[in-house]
């Protein structure tokens, strides 16, 4: 019984790793599409999201079967519950990367981002590229140090995001309404990607330690995880 | 053993009902704050979100304990898994209602919504008020017909949302940049509230029938559920 459980748990962990790699590729691709007006990359991110969604559904199904047949307890149960939640988080991250790719495709061959905001958006994208790579490593190695660095550094992304919001607020900024809308929405998609990466990092810490850092006293648990 | 399980399941179902009522009140309150520039209601929505977040954490913990100690199968297992997912969805809905209330508080005593867009936003809010009431009934009665009507009618909210986006896009619209940003973000929060209500409805159908309508052929499962 125990051997079967571990084999099945291994299979679902492999699927979750695959999902994390898909999400990493989608984040990299969305950034490239946005930065270089690369419509082919944009399209491949959009098309690729279907597989990510399917993986999410399959992972939840596998977890429910594991719970039904194997009655996991302690660390194994934590792994199964956290795996379900991670798959839901990764599905949302895939959706957000797809939204960015769709914005890049819509304005092709131009960028949706006004020229003088592109440096800040590139910095956000650089940040997310690193985060996406870290997500994959963190998950494959159940690496708490990487998870903690993702949680700790998310403020940098929020600061960049705030900078884009301040630019957009100024009525002196010579841009179209559509450009303001794109700056606001793409900025929010990126900020949300960072929030979901933080949420995923908390789940990995929970798997390893059984401790949920979202419940640390004084931490504003619900903030912006929507 | 069985009696204990049902008692514990009843306790967590009561908490989930409580969460749904909190979310309903938050949605109603956010709408009232936005419509009537009522800063006291706005503040109570913002303050109330703390309890909703705590309930979500408590519900997930209770579900994990149930899974560990009772090894539920079949319908009971479906209920536990769906309850976890519903609590996560309701937590996000609480966050979104809080974001709307925060926008209303920020611009007090003015509305963040330009006068000529207020009718459309009021219509979105009317729609969400009905949806919020339906969520509570649907959950308390495990009512599939109500769940299906929430899923079916979400298009109406999307149409209203699209109308606000079209208004914002026009460079002839005499508004400030900040007003465009608020129209875009508050509109998106409302649209997302509708999406999450759809997602919750699917979970209720899954509890009752064991069938996940998100997996219906041809349905775009991952769309915008982020």
From TrEMBL, chains A, B:
InterPro entries: PhoU, PhoU-like_sf, PhoU_dom. It is found in: Cytoplasm. Coiled coil: none annotated. It comes from the Bacteria. One of its GO terms (cellular component) is cytoplasm. The keyword Transferase does not apply. Gene3D superfamilies: Phosphate transport system protein phou homolog 2, domain 2. GO terms for biological process: intracellular phosphate ion homeostasis; negative regulation of phosphate metabolic process; phosphate ion transport. Keywords: Cytoplasm, Phosphate transport, Transport. Residues 16-103, 124-204 form the PhoU domain. It holds the Pfam family PhoU. Belongs to the PhoU family. Plays a role in the regulation of phosphate uptake. Homodimer. This is Phosphate-specific transport system accessory protein PhoU. The lineage of its organism: Bacteria, Bacillati, Actinomycetota, Actinomycetes, Bifidobacteriales.
């Amino acid at each position: 019984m125990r051997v079967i459980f571990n084999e099945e748990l291994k299979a679902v962990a492999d699927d979750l790793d695959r999902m994390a790699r898909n999400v990493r590729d989608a984040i990299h691709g969305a950034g490239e599409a946005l930065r270089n007006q690369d419509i082919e990359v944009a399209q491949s991110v959009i098309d690729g999201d279907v597989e990510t969604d399917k993986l999410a559904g399959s992972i939840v199904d596998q977890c429910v079967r594991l719970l039904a047949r194997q009655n996991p307890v302690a660390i194994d149960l934590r792994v199964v519950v956290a795996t379900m939640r991670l798959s839901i988080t990764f599905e949302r991250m895939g959706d957000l990367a797809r939204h960015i790719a769709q914005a890049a495709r819509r304005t092709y061959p131009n960028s949706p981002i006004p020229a003088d905001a592109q440096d800040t958006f590139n910095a956000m994208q650089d940040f997310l590229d690193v985060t996406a790579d870290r997500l994959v490593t963190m998950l494959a190695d159940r690496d708490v140090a990487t998870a903690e660095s993702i949680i700790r550094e998310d403020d940098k992304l929020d600061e960049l995001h705030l900078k884009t919001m301040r630019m957009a607020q100024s009525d002196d900024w010579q841009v179209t309404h559509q450009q303001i809308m794109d700056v606001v929405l793409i900025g929010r998609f990126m900020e949300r990607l960072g929030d979901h990466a933080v949420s995923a990092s908390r789940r990995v810490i929970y798997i390893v330690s059984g401790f949920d850092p979202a419940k640390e006293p004084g931490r504003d648990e619900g903030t912006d995880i929507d």
